[in-house]
TrEMBL record, chains A, B:
UniProt xrefs under PROSITE patterns: HTH_CROC1, HTH_LACI_2, RHODANESE_3
Gene Ontology molecular functions: DNA-binding transcription factor activity; transcription cis-regulatory region binding
Rhodanese domain residues: 125-204
Ranges where the HTH lacI-type domain occurs: 11-65
Keywords of the record: DNA-binding, Transcription, Transcription regulation
Record's protein name: Substrate-binding domain-containing protein
HTH cro/C1-type domain mapped to chain residues: 12-55
Length: 348, 348
């Protein structure tokens, strides 16, 4: 192991000055932007920097500049979920592309569970990143409070509930998209349309349920089953629905993974899709929606683009914080709601 | 947006001292461990800390303590690959469990490509983490050099090639496992056994090819096709093999994803598995190996456990670096090679 003591072998500013034959002050000026240093001298220094593999003491430097060129991403889910739900991979892809384009390092802070949030808070407050992108927050999560205490510029993915009124967020039109899904089922002549809801401690799931109720205000409570955005949750909920309402002829599932689980149970129960039961999902998740049997009619949201927008909003805020602080109008927070669109495939 | 300027709203040490009715020096002593402070005073301070949501200026503090309670993970692959190859999710699961058990934050540094390594190097050298876990390194990667220059304690996942002779690593017995796979195919009476190799710029792929050659030193070169550890690479290689050696009756694929691709092509070509062609993979990857058709005989390595071992080795090194520095024997690096085992399913 390169032991901690080997930090002593890291090339120093003095070593660079020796090698370049210049003063320490000159090296320092070059390393910090080169203002006021003749270009011939600066070149000598940069050559010595390359030859020695010198890295400035960023910890000390970032205390002065207060810039780390890094952004933390915190997902309020255990790491196992982060790596099994493709939603997160797609959102991270958008974030990664946008941050990379601005040479900012994506720092993904993984947790096993809520017991780890205090540690995440210490890292966020510890002067390691310029800002934070936070998503998949639940109603009773302490995370928004912890993030706020870190005093870092923050953008949420998904509308946070009440707790963080002045923090900008990026979300899709969950309620409008849900309305479109249910209207589509009704336009196919379906009369017993059920909803498999997502986890109702998340605003995306609440909004999609509200959209269902907007179109079917008189739907009986037994037509609404609770899922959890996973295929297993969709299976459980579909079994309940078939049990309670055997005459169900339409299902709006809160996301595509839920719909995939529901389709499996319908198949096992001998119900033909869409002839007996038409099914609509939400997300248009790659590759899920195209690989279900039959392929899934669903409400598309551009998840990768939402990730890109989150990163862009944060980076813009960081720039303004530097250049335009003091102009309250121009630095005012603004959230972004992206549109949704129904994608018709075989399932409805 | 919580603008950068709002850092001014972060509760200060002074505010805590005011609220607790003690001196700043007392607050500072309590926050930094409480040595020499009466417990009644310490309690007052901690109550004020809680009430105000005070977070010490960790950036300044970590410059003094040189501890961040955080470990960076760098995977030498684009983030898209990190989120599509379950190998990485499983290794990260082991790392996450072990780091969490020691209250150390897992900091995953994602990249789009090699162009981002310089930025990763700046983050590693920037005083943000106590050590680094690095995996999936390729022969011509600059990453090991960049990591070494950061002077951080480091453990590699997978044996690094030459470039980092004194850095400990965790790997499985790639060559021995490969030998077992090929011997198994031979024990089934197979006489034309092909190998679909992994990317030969990685030691794991090289070692598995060497294991194949150990058992079949006289295998004709056309029996060896090159894959890249992905299903698509396995498909391409299997098509080449069927073209070049139509009498092939056994395939040792360098990993399970490669085998999954090969099985698809064999199915399309009308070859029965295992009757016409027996196939063995490497990894015993969940859920891949059990879901192929037919289920895959493969060489098991405990990927999650390897992640745990990497983290344990690093944390042990960090402790020793603190407590036992100066005792060269006790701090000497040591790598770990984990055993492999053949798991027999229907494909061979």
């Amino acid at each position: 192991m390169t032991e901690p003591s080997s930090a002593a072998h890291r090339p120093t500013l003095e070593a660079v000055a020796d090698r370049a034959g210049v003063s320490r002050a000159t090296v320092s000026r070059v390393v910090n932007g080169g203002a006021g240093v003749r270009s011939s001298l600066a070149e000598k220094v940069l050559r010595a920097v390359d030859e020695l593999g010198y890295v400035p003491n960023q910890a000390a430097r970032s205390l002065v500049t207060r810039r780390h060129d890094a952004v933390a991403v915190v997902i309020a889910e255990p790491e196992t979920r982060v790596f099994t739900d493709p939603f997160f991979a797609q959102q991270l892809r958008g974030i990664s592309k946008e941050l990379t384009a601005h040479d900012s390092q994506l720092v993904l802070l993984l947790v096993e569970g809520r017991g780890d949030y205090a540690r995440v808070g210490r890292y966020l407050a510890g002067g390691h990143v310029d800002g934070a992108l936070v998503f998949s927050v639940h109603l009773d999560d302490e995370l928004p409070d912890i993030v706020r205490r870190s005093a870092l510029p923050t953008v949420f993915g998904g509308r946070p509930d009440g707790g963080a009124p002045h923090t900008p967020y990026v979300d899709c039109d969950n309620r409008g998209g849900a309305r479109e899904a249910v209207r589509h089922l009704r336009s196919l002549g379906r009369e017993r349309i059920a909803h498999i809801a997502g986890p109702l401690d998340q605003t995306s799931a609440m909004d999609r349920l509200d959209g269902y109720r907007d179109v079917l205000p008189d739907a009986e409570p037994e037509l609404i089953a609770r899922g959890d955005f996973t295929p297993a949750g969709g299976e459980r909920a579909m079994r309940e629905l078939l049990d309670r309402c055997p005459d169900v002829d339409g299902v709006f599932a809160a996301n595509d993974l839920t719909a995939a689980g529901a389709l499996r149970v319908l198949g096992e129960a001998g119900r033909r899709v869409p002839e007996d039961v038409a099914v609509v999902g939400f997300d248009d998740m790659e590759p899920v929606a195209e690989q279900t049997s039959p392929p899934l009619t669903t409400v598309r949201q551009d998840i990768e683009e939402m990730g890109r927008l989150m990163a862009r909003l944060l980076l813009r805020g960081l720039e303004r914080g530097g250049a335009l602080a003091g102009d309250p109008l121009d630095t005012a927070p603004s959230s972004v709601i992206t549109p949704t669109a129904l994608v018709r495939r075989a399932s409805a």
